[in-house]
Every structure is written in C-alpha cells, then in structure tokens.
Amino acid sequence: MDLKSKIILIAGPTASGKSNFAFKLAKKINGEIINADSMQVYKQLNILTARPKKKELKKIKHHLYGYCDVKKKYSTGEWIKLLLKKIRDIRIKKKIPIIVGGTGLYFKALTEGLVKIPNIPFKVRNKIRKMQKKLGQKKFYKKLKNYDPLIKNKIDKNDVQRSIRAYEIKYQTKKSIYDWFKKTKIFFSSNEFVKLYIDYPREELIKRINLRVEDMFKEGVIREVKRFNRLKVKKENSSNKVIGIKEITSLLDKQCTIEQAQERIAIKTRQYAKRQATWARGQMQSWQKINPKNLTEAIKKLK
User: May I ask the CATH architecture of the domain 122-181?
Assistant: First the structure.
C-alpha cells in the first residue's frame, strides 16, 4: 500500500490512548496529526478535554487543537472546511495526514460526505426537544412518521436523537431530512482512507478513565473551570457540554466534595465511552480493530 496517497483515520472511545498512538505512528510514517474531537478544538479547555501534551506538540505537527474560543458556536461543517485545507497542506509537504479523535459525526462527514442542512434556531430545537420529552419517544416517533413519511423504515423507532433531528429539519425547512441527504457533498473516494479503530477491553478502559480523572485534578483542572465560568458562556454553546464543567462547578459551589466530583466525572466519562462504542458498532463496522499497545502490528495493517 502506498501510504503517501492515503488518509489515516484513528478512532476509538475516550481514554483509549488515541492521541498517543497517533503520535507514535506519525513519527514512524512521517505524518502530521489533525484533531477530530469536537471538544479538543476549544482553546480554554486544555486539561478537561485531554489535549495532547506540549512535548508531543513540539515533536510532531498537530492541527486543529485548541484554536476555537469557547464562546463561539462550532459545527461539523466548519471543521470539515478547515480539515480539507490541512489535508492539502500536509500532502504538499509530502507527509501523511493522520486524523484522530472520538467524534463519530466528524468521521462520518469526512468518509460519507456532508449534508448541507441549514442551522436550526435554538428556540426551534428547544421546542421540539420539549415536545419529545412530553410525548415520550413512542408517541413522538408516531407523530414524526405522520409529519415526514419518508423516515419510515429509515430511522429506528428508539433512536431519540435522529428522530428529533428529522423533526427539526422538517419543521424548519419544510423538507424531509432525506431530501437534504440527496445534496450530500463527497470529499474523497473510499479507497483513500485507512480506517483504524482502537479496541480496548471494557474493564481496562474503565481503569484508564479513572486514572485520567485523577491526573486532571493534579494538573489543575479546577483552576481551568474557574476561568471558564468567568467567561459566562451561553448555555446553548457546545463547550458547556464538556464533561467535568458541571461537576467541578458544583464542587466550587460547595455542593459536593472533590471525591464526589471526581466520581461523577468518571461515571459520565464511562457513559460517554459506552455511547462511542455503540456508535462504532453501528457506524464503523468496516474499520480495522487495533491494539494501541502494539504499534508494530498496527503498522503491518497499513501495508
């Protein structure tokens, strides 16, 4: 395989060692790393989002980490636009782009194309979420089918997020989500990608998550959240969804102990890792599973 013509994708659950593996791989194959984590783009949240360490950033060129202000609304479309430029720049230098992260939607947009759907106003999104909560998923899904018949047999009746998204789009644009899908823009052919998925045993991943949370507190994550809170970021902004902000804010407000805050962050992180793994089972079935501890074996899979 001629790696110079490839784009290497590395995905996996949080705390699985993706960044470290990408760093080692980049050193071996003359690559540069591009971030595909929607929370690691925020410059004010370094520790909480577990961005790569300074020593790694100095040795290997990293892109799209910590450049977006937490007050700014950020979208998959914006990420794709910047990503395409970075891939071109890296290839001009005769290096290999290595895209690493845990945001499934980013990888889906890159490999399957980006659907051009207008932004949905927060008021509309909030209204429809309240409706779904009031009706319950069973009645909401039935209402959605009547409202947008094209979703029948395409969206699972238990898929809350996709059901809400489909309703939002129909409500705001008067078009089915599947009418918008027809306008999908494809960026690369499928044979340009090498897709690697880091697969960790659940129990080992839980230990890694617990250690990461402990390390965050040692590194000064409480001070980081204090600074974030002083910025008074709007509640609807995605940066507020970073795991740990709510829990550490409760600690600062003396509503819990440091041990309780750590445990709550660990629990939420484990739940997030489980959702990532569920996404991967459904959306990343064609990806090669790798053990990040065995770099030599992983490189063999590239050839």
Answer: Orthogonal Bundle (1.10)
